[in-house]
Each structure stands twice: as C-alpha cells, then as structure tokens.
Amino acid sequence: MKLTGSKLLVTAGPTVERIDPVRFISNHSTGKMGYAIAAELAARGAEVTLVSGPVALETPPGVRRVDVESAGDMWRECVALWPGMDGAVMCAAVADYTPAEVSPVKIKKEALTHPPDKADGNEPKDVSSHRELKPSEIMLRLIPTKDIAAELGRMKRPGQLLVGFALETDNEEANALGKLRRKNLDMIVLNSLRDAGAGFGGDTNRVTVFTSDGSKTCFPLESKTAAAAHIVDMLSESFKAAD
Ligand code: CTP
C-alpha cells in the first residue's frame, strides 16, 4: 500500500483529567511531535485525522482535527475511528490515572480537612497504606484509564499499521520493546528524557525506532520536523513492504 491516499489516525498532546471545575491532572506534553507527524503525513498525501488533547498549536494544513480533553474521550474517538483507518501513530501522552469522582462544584478545603481542634477520631484514612492522614492532609482517589494503543492493537486487522511512542527515563530499550510487544505495535519510537534536547516542549528530538520484525534504527538529535520526516519514511517503507 502507498502512503498517498491512505487513511491515518494520529493522537497528540496531553490529556486533561478533571478533579473539579477549576482543577485537573495533566502532563508536560505540548503536542509538537504529534503535530509534526500529522503535518508530514498530510504533506505526503495521506488523509490524516488528528485526535488532539488541549494544546496551543495550529492545525497543520489539510489535517482533520478532533479535539478531546480526557483519556476517556480520546479512547472513545480512537476506538470509533480505527476500523476505517489504514494505520495510526499514537503520540499522545495519555494520563494513566484519572480521579475516581469529578466534583461538579469547586472543592473547598473546609469540606475535606479536619482541623486539629475538631479531630474526632473519624479522620479520613489512606486505605492503600492504612496510614492515618494528618488532619491537614487529603486523599485523591485515582482509577486507571484505558490503554488506547493496546486496545487498537487488539482490534488490529491484517494490513493495519500501528505505531507507538515510548518516552523513558531509564531502561529505555527494554521498556520500549516491552510496550511494542504488549500493545501489539508494528513500530515503536523511543525518546529518552536522559538525552539533552529530547522530550517535552523543545523543538528537537533524538529518536530510535524499533520494529516488530527486530530492526533498530537510531536517528541523530534533530528538529522535531526532521524526526517526523524520518518516522514517516519508515512508516511508508512498512506500508510498501506489507503489499
Ligand atoms: N498510550 C495510549 N493510551 C494510554 C497510555 C499510553 O494510547 N492510556 C500510548 C501512548 O500514546 C504511546 C504508548 O502507548 O504511544 C506508550 O505510552 P507510555 O505512556 O510511554 O506507556 P504506558 O503504557 O503508559 O506505560 P508507563 O507509563 O508505565 O511507562
């Protein structure tokens, strides 16, 4: 199959997990790498749908963008879109946990804490460690989100190509290869936070690409646009090889 005319899904950016109307849990992803890949794919003639968490970036020319907020929203969009796609590149930094309850109103300190003078022995307890909380401390219960890449890996039919990312701080290669296998990916792009100039926010990246057939390709520190072009070259080769 050719990249030109193929239908591709790209996820990008962080997800935002609400605690109440003013607070949330998120991460440092700016979406730059995912947007650069979406732009490169569209420039080479692919039909790109970009499912994006909240970012401050312009939609690349020719790309259809679907904005989402939480990991749950991103999961629903991707699972619905995947059967109609030829491939997907999962760049989003999806939150692994989300608050068990979202408060519809701003949570007030007085409602949560037990001031020392009012301590009555019924203070909230940390159920995971059975450690009693200090009167001024609070617990936020988090539940796991669903793994979108792993779900697409389970749904994958012959001919569909699934690419994941791994951002690691240690044991980089072993962690990346573990994710490649567990999520049934065809390719995984590793970037290490140990590399100066790689990772969140900046305009450069140093990536290493592993494929499910055992190849390893290292690219130099380069702009995210150049890294995106290298990743798309590899995707294009895999499409050709799958013919
Ligand atoms: N991913 C996803 N949905 C999730 C978590 C991760 O689609 N709920 C995707 C990411 O977009 C990326 C790949 O899975 O392509 C690896 O993400 P990463 O956060 O590095 O791995 P996790 O599986 O979350 O493992 P950990 O956080 O323990 O390193």
Structure description:
The protein is an alpha/beta fold and 243 residues long. It is 26% helix and 26% strand. The protein contains six helices and 16 strands. It has helices spanning 32-43, 71-81, 109-112, 148-155, 172-182, 224-241; strands spanning 7-12, 17-20, 23-25, 47-52, 64-67, 87-90, 97-99, 125-126, 131-132, 142-144, 161-168, 187-192, 204-205, 208-211, 216-218, 222-223. Strands 5-4-1-6-11-12-14-15 form an eight-stranded mixed beta sheet, with helices on both faces. The chain has a two-stranded antiparallel ribbon with strand order 2-3. A hairpin with a 4-residue loop joins strand 14 and strand 15. Helix 1 crosses helix 6 (224-241). The radius of gyration is 21 Å and the shape is globular. It starts with 6 loop residues before the first strand and ends with a helix. The mean pLDDT is 90. Bound molecules: cytidine-5'-triphosphate. The site of cytidine-5'-triphosphate (CTP) has 15 residues, from helix 4 and strand 11.
Bound small-molecule species: cytidine-5'-triphosphate
Shape: globular
Gyration radius, to the nearest Å?
Answer: 21 Å
SS elements, strand count = 16
Question: Which descriptors apply to this entry?
Answer:
243 residues, alpha/beta, eight-stranded mixed β-sheet, two-stranded antiparallel sheet, 16 strands, globular, binds cytidine-5'-triphosphate
Q: What can be said about this structure in brief?
A:
The chain has 243 residues and is α/β, with parallel strands linked by helices.
